[in-house]
Amino acid sequence: MGALGFTFPLVLSALVLLPVIWWLLRLIPPRPQTELFPPLRILLRLVKREEAPAKSPWWLTALRLALTALVILALARPVLNPQSELASGDGPLLIMIDNDWAAAPDWEARIRTAEALLRQASDQNRPVALAATVAGPATSVQLADAAAIEQTLGALQPISGRADRALALDRLLTAADTAEDAPVLALIDTGLAEAADEAIAGSLAGAELSGLIRFSEPDRPLAAITGADNRTDGFALDLIRTESGPAEPSVALYDSRERLLGRAQATFEDGAARTTVLFDIPFELRNDIAAARIDGQTHSAATRLLDENNRRRRVALLTGLAGEEAQPLLSPLYYISRALDPFADLIEPRTGDLSVDVPEMIDQGPAMIVMADIGVLPASAEARLDEWLQAGGTLVRFAGPRLAASAADDPYLPVTLRAGERELGGALSWSEPQSVAAFPPDSPFAGLDAPRDVTVNRQLLAQPDADLAERTWASLEDGTPLVTGARRGDGAIVLFHVTAEATWSNLPISGTFVDMLRRITDFARNTAPGADVAPRTGEADAALPPLRTLRADGTLIVPPAHVRPYDPEAAASAVSFENPAGLYGTAEGFIARNVLAREETFAPFEPAAPGLSIAEQTLVAEEQTDLSGLLFLIAFLLLIADTLAVLWINGRLSFGKAPRRGAPRTAATAALLALVAGGAATMTTMPAAFAQDTQPGDEAILDALETTRIAYVLTGDDGVDETSRAGLDGLTRFLASRTAFEPGTPMALDIETDELSFYPLIYFPISTAGELPSEAAIARLDSYMQNGGTILFDTRDQLTGSLSAGTTPETTRLREILDGLNVPPLEPVPTDHVLTKTFYILDAFPGRYAGSPLWVEASDLAEGRSDRPVRTGDGVSPIMITGNDLAAAWALDEGGRPLFPIASGDPLQRIYAFRTGVNIMMYMLTGNYKADQVHVPALLERLGQ
């Protein structure tokens, strides 16, 4: 039980009057009697006798004495747990109170201490000024009476911010400038040092103080989290503690719904102030971690909020190769996806159209975009890619034939490349494959062991310039770059000078490849809102609104009114009154701001006061309680009891007597009526509703899917379009008469709007009469080629080109179209190509003219072996180019008669032109099946046949 004291002890001298009061109250007048009226009985009792006053009952006397004593004690104002004088002196009292995150565990003790100071200042009639160390920039501090300051103190709450004691002290000293007497400064601090405390010494040195009192709690048992890392070997938290902090605190991880994901025990070595705790939890759960907390610590520094920077990076994958590869081990993205999948969230393209896929992927805020052998991007995709790079994205590119063909004009390369590539046995070649040299010390790959079993047979060469050395992250033993990188805005561009699959080098199938991609991913950052960059809102420097703020006790709450949007430009600033710890952004993406930085430790606060002694005191442990109100209440109740007793003694009250006959009896009657509807409710019969499965245009889609058709592009030239229709119709009839394939009626396509993916082959006659296809149309053609379709470009200019011996308008128009496509290296159809053997045996591919070769995608593999009937390769060429005007040779009228003469006059040329069309269609439908026929005898032998 606490101590008891009296504010006005002289009032207790009135207790000596209690005996006098007892003597005055011991007698009461005689009790009057009530009799019935019978007159005779009254007359008989009219006998005079002596009457003495009745004595007061002992219990009534004791009650009245107790009432009097309670009133005297209440007037003396008894106080439970009275505090001694905390701040002596006559000048103004200046109170500076820490209300930062560290004040939360003992906030009530700090409020009690401040209230005790205010009570004593009120009793002494001293003016008071109060300043909190976490307050808004416009906070006003003035001298006032204690009652007004007490209202301010009642509204004060701890904030998840950092204390600015120097600013609070300056406000107090400014408020005390108008006082005549020297003020007394009372510091109610947390005992922990802050970065701005160095300025306090100068302020105290220039202040005229009559005293300095400090209220604090020594040896506070605090522990806090300073950092979180989603490492490859687990999820790690960095912890610090004070000297008296817990030696083995328990730490828990929670998701956004406060569900427990993991718990671990941290261990501080003897005397150590810092440690790291590692959670061994699956990668899938690490992305769900929203917060980490130290059990038993009721302050916001023991809670660590997480955002996208603590999650696995999001990586988008793009390739310029057709999406339909028969062998996945030859896919450019196979090894990349296998290397990144354990520690990154992979985004795959949705449509294959770069003008659509690139913006969609960027909208998802990836940390890194990987492009495998993409040479040309649509202009709209380039604009979004520029914004993404400037915002902090990391673009990783891999070499390949397409990139080699467009390297001279590619703006997304870290270094300038030479045209073509260097390969073993070719120009600028090595005598033997090259190995990887040791990684430079300033490279992101520093510390990794150079793989001795990795060799490079082919690479893209960089132009030697002044910046090449500092942009080289990895090189070969001959000094040529293997990996280069450069900054682009806040982002970076990285180039692997070899392919992403094992055709140019065996690096992608090595363990070092995984480590290199992981290093690049580690320094990449997600660019969606919620990363350490501002979300794109139309303004580069848009502020992030507060989503949830962290209360000083470590719980997330709705942001109070004083919280302002967070400016990403002030990322280095500490948490404050206007921007406390919490989540800033939107529900789709946010930034987590925490109390402590990774490198911080706990240090004691030591205020320097030259020439001024500091009186050290502890916080007020128990609250002072005024008992006078309670005593007055008890005295009032005793007064009521006394009044009732007097009435009862005088007969004014009767208890236990029967009521008069006929008196009404009252009884509280309550009736509860429940209405229950019985029977089954009548159901309203509704007509059956069915989902509308069919949509406009579905019939055409189903027809295109059921019947294979050859399509041709509408050029805007009516003559050319009619020739294309008649030619493909003639080829369709020839295919139906000579093969088992019966295609449908040819389809005319508007490449600006029509769906292209239904058709295995699109015939594209080049005409200069129409408009050049738009960028969107060219992007759709590029997507069609990447997803396995083939476009047969026919310039129809073999005759005019051979006569003029120069570039024709049709060839110029074709080059303008190809500039927007990811065109692989091309070559005339070799004699051992599968196109020469798919149905007919051909050595040329004539049309109306016979002089132009048929160009197809060049094979990157070696020449075919003697034991194989055709050149090795996989898939179908996405592009074919000829100038022989194939459609004119195929064009027939309704009677089957040719519409156009053959230029050479040889009727066999038309037959070979039809055979060319048959071989092309069979190649489109069956691919390189002829190359696999060599395995049939071996398969039959293994099957025992």
TrEMBL record:
DUF4159 domain residues: 709-925
Highest taxon, organism lineage: Bacteria
NCBIfam families, sorted: two_anch
Keywords, comma-separated and alphabetical: Membrane, Transmembrane, Transmembrane helix
SUPFAM superfamilies reported for this sequence: Class I glutamine amidotransferase-like
Domain Aerotolerance regulator N-terminal: 4-78
Ranges that cross the membrane: 6-25, 627-649, 670-690
Name of the protein in question: DUF4159 domain-containing protein
